[in-house]
Every structure is written in structure tokens, then in C-alpha cells.
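Standup notes, structure subgroup. Blocker cleared on the magnesium ion input:
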Amino acid sequence: MPLRIQLIFAMVAALLISLVLVGTLAWWNAARSVNTEMHAAMDAAERVVRTTIAQLPATSDDPLYIERLIPAFDGNRHIKAVLVKSDGLAAATSAMASTGAPPSWFTRAVGVAPEIRDIPLPPEAAPYRAVTLQTDPRNEIGEVWARVRDDSLIMAVFCLATVLLGRWIVGHALSPLEKLSRGIAIIGTGNYAARVQSHGPPEISELADSFNTMAEHLGTLESKNHRLTGQLLTIQEEERTDLARDLHDEVGPFLFAVNVDAAAIARDAEAKGLSEIATQVRSIQESVTHMQRHVRAILRRLRPAGLQDVGLEQAVSNLAAFWQQRHAETAIRVHVAPGAADINEAHSAAIYRVIQESLSNAVRHGQSRGIDITVADIGDDIVVEVADDGVGLARPVTDAVSNTFGIVGMKERVAGLGGRLTVANRTDGCSGAIVTARLPRQTAEDISEPAAL
Ligand SMILES: Nc1ncnc2c1ncn2[C@@H]1O[C@H](COP(=O)(O)OP(=O)(O)OP(=O)(O)O)[C@@H](O)[C@H]1O
Ligand SMILES: [Mg+2]
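Run returned:
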């Protein structure tokens, strides 16, 4: 569950618990205060009745004296007084003051029962036997109810305001964290240009600063890494070129010379009837021819056949033709965009090597029947794809250390130019694997200002 929701839930739960506690306390106080009030009212009323009874002997000339006691209770909010005759019937009952009645559930919750007190009258009060006093807690409960209702209303407004304010504060405080989390996700994809604005509370702005420093370091390391890989590949290309030149210039002429000399010796030996020598020399000639073929094959591998001379498209077509000759059953199709003619030397070499390795993999591991090589010019990127219809990859290709060098080498070569290479199974419904290399025409040094979140 998101932290924002968790915090709001915690706040609502705390408010609800407080409300329950306040409600319980209010209920307990209400029951106590109504009880106390009723007892006090009953005691006061009893005192009035007893005072009246005490004065009865002195008021014997006033037969209505006792009857005037009951109207004295008219308008009382808590006590009802009843004058009871000797036959048990009520001779007079006081009229209580009436206020708004509380809801019945609240009356039940307060739970204060009416109390009845019978105060007997002396014989002088005949024909009346007693005065009955009865408490009626409804008025008092009504008062308490009005207080509780107003307090609850204020509490509800307070809780609502607290929740809304809390929601706003939590949202405000968490928004830098959410930006930070988006930044980390972007860094996780290998894009170190992401930056987070440093604002909010000091703890969070420090986090944002540390994040930005880390992203900057990673970016610097990555561009250093790219530069190093680029240098490595350049050195590798130079080494290959030197080796190819030496083989071509130093070994090639000597092999040629040996062949020419051997042919001359063979001719001489045959002319002089030394057929045995002639046969041996012919065998030397065959070995030399074999060595020449071998050297030419090595040269082809070391230097992409005429990449600089014939251009990328022709060089790729030559490569396709090379494999086609050896695997006639596999159809190799080449589609190179016209813009490929403008691709610079470093990019052309990388593209050529990617296609060379991917073709070799598709034939060696995929047992493919059809291979499509595409070099497309998409906006600022050059996209190279080699898709085969073979068996596909047995397991996904990861960045984990492996003891094979083909895919690792392709990835490094492309990364060295600021690009990205993926090897995966095809997702277009066909079987087989697809190698995709995306090379920016711009180099890593030209990457614009980092994007701020
Ligand atoms: N087109 C493909 N079809 C099926 N499997 C493939 C394909 N390309 C690569 N693979 C699998 O990926 C593995 C790694 O390929 P990678 O080119 O790195 O090494 P390799 O070809 O085995 O050896 P090398 O170092 O000589 O290139 C291969 O061994 C193969 O199992
Ligand atoms: Mg390979």
C-alpha cells in the first residue's frame, strides 16, 4: 500500500480512536451528571414537602394549605409532585416544564431510571394520605444531549479539517520522495542524465542532493567507460590493421616469391629429367598456395573486405555472399538504407562487426533458413537488425559474466559509440532470434543537459 495512503489511514485511525474515547468519556459524564442532578432535585423537593408538612399544625385554619403545595412544583424541570388521597387516587399532579426531547437511543444509553419517593402526610392533612415525588430525567438528558450534539459537530468539523490538512501535508512532504523514486527508476534503466530538484524538508532535500551527486558520478563513470571502450576498440582495430598489413606486405610477397621460385625449380627439374625433385617442388607449391589462401582468409577476417573502399552496403553484401556460398539453403537478405553511405568510419566498422557476429551466430547456433539484415536511418539513430528464423535463444541473454565473447564484444563495441545492443527472441510471431543495435549518430560527449524531474 502506498506510504501516502498508509499515513492517512493511520491519521484517520488515531482520530477515530480519540473520538471513541471522547464519546465514552462523554457518555460516562452524562450518566453521572444526570444522576447527580436527579438526586439533588429529589432531595430539594423532599425538603420543600417536609417543610410544608412541618407547618401543617400552625395552618389548621387554612384547609387548602396542603393543596397549594402541588402547584408550587409546576414548571419544575426534574420533579413531578402528586398529592395522593386516602383511597390512593391522585388528587393533584404538578405540571412539569417541557423542553426538547432527546433521541430515545441517547436516553437509553445514558440509562438513568426515574426515582419515586412517597412522603406520608400527618392526619391534619386528611383527606390526603401522601405526597409522591418522582424524578423525570428527560429534561436533564435533553440538556446533555444538546451539549453532546454541539460538541460532536465541532469534533466532526475538527476531524474533517485535520484529515484534509493531513492529506495535504503528507502529499506535499511525499512529493519529493515520489520524484526521487522516479529518478531512481530512470537511473535503473541506465539513463544517468536524470536529476531531482532539491526542495522540501532538509532531510529530503539532502537525499535529492545525494541522488544528484550519485547520478553525476555515474554519468561521468559511464562516459569514461564509453571513452575507454572506444579507445580499446580503436586500438583493437589498429592492431588488426597492422597485423593485416604485415601479413599482406611481409608474408604475402615472400609466399609469392617462394611459389614463383618453386615453379622455376620445378620447370628446371623437369627440363633436366629430375622428375622426383619436380614432384616434391610441386608439393611445396601446393603447400604455399594453401598458405596463401589461408593468409587471405585471415586477412579477410582481420580487415573487413574493403569497408573503406567499397562502402558499408557492399561490404555487408560481400559478407552475406560469403555465408550464402557456404550455406546455400539459407536465404540471406540485405536491406541497407540509402543514408548509410554517410555513416562515418567508426560507426561503419561497428555495424559491420555486429552484422558479422550476428550472421555467424544465426548460422552456427540458429540453424536458420532465412536471415534478414537491415540497416536503417531513424532520426538521430542508426538502427541495425539481424533477424533469423532459427531455433531462437535457449535462455535470455543477460549482462552476467559469460565465457563467450561474441555478444559481449558486440555490446561493448556499440556502447563504445554511445549506443545500445539487445539480443532476444523475436516477438513478431516468428521463431528465431533478433539482434538490434541502436547507434546515435551523435557521440556521448554531445549529450545535452540532464533532464530535471
Ligand atoms: N541467432 C541465435 N540463435 C540461437 N542462439 C543464439 C543465437 N545467437 C546467440 N545464441 C546463443 O547465445 C550464446 C552466446 O553467443 P555468443 O556469440 O556470445 O557466443 P558463441 O557464439 O557461443 O561464441 P563466440 O565467443 O565464438 O561468439 C550462444 O552460445 C548461443 O547459445
Ligand atoms: Mg558468437
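Discussed briefly. The two ends are 24 Å apart (CA to CA).
Next: hand off to the docking folks.
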